[in-house]
Amino acid sequence: EFKEPWKELKVSAQRLLDCKFGFIDDELEEFDMFNAIERLKYADGSLKFTITATYRDILQQIDKGFTHYLLSNIRPLRSIYSIRIYELLRELEEGWRIKFELIELRQVLGCENKHLKYGHFKQIVLKRAKKDLKEHTDRWFDLIEYRRGRKIGAVEFLVHEKDFHVREHQP
């Protein structure tokens, strides 16, 4: 609890205005530093701020390197691996294929040291993801396994899309 809220608010506002952002490359001995907030205004119980043009441009650029999807598509997924596989498939079109060496797929999914036997990996990660995605999202996949001798060495995802309409929340 703040003893002096008005004083705390002024101090916090000043800290925000003093906050600097930047990119530093020690190898090239270069940096680019800037303020993020241009103006802060408090009136009638409301704090309003304006960000600088430089910060706005950077925020707009950050958006380009990420996969976009509706959170409502992944909310019902029961497994983190289902979500990660959905993110991989989200970047691909209907009918596209993506092949992974088993070691690479485990790294991408973040389970290098889990489900070490392929049978367990297939059951717990791949089959569950296939079922989750087919039931709950606009993408699903067929899986093609590639053998290396007697073991599975790689898998390929064949991407499918379905006509999927987001269900609106009904109170």
Structural class category: alpha+beta
Helix content: 25-40%
Percent of residues in beta strands: 25-35%
Largest sheet: 3 strands, antiparallel
Question: Would you report the number of β strands?
Answer: 7
Distance between the termini: 36 Å
Descriptive terms for the model:
elongated, 171 residues, 3-stranded antiparallel β-sheet, 6 helices, alpha+beta, 39% helix, two-stranded antiparallel ribbon
Q: In a few lines, what is going on in this structure?
A:
The protein is α+β, with helices and mostly antiparallel strands and 171 residues long. Helix content is 39%, strand content 30%.
Helix-strand blueprint:
Blueprint: H1 5-18, E1 20-25, E2 30-35, E3 37-43, E4 46-51, H2 53-62, H3 71-74, H4 80-90, E5 97-101, H5 102-109, H6 118-136, E6 139-148, E7 151-161
Antiparallel strand pairs: 1-2, 3-4, 5-7, 6-7
Helix pairs in contact: 4-6
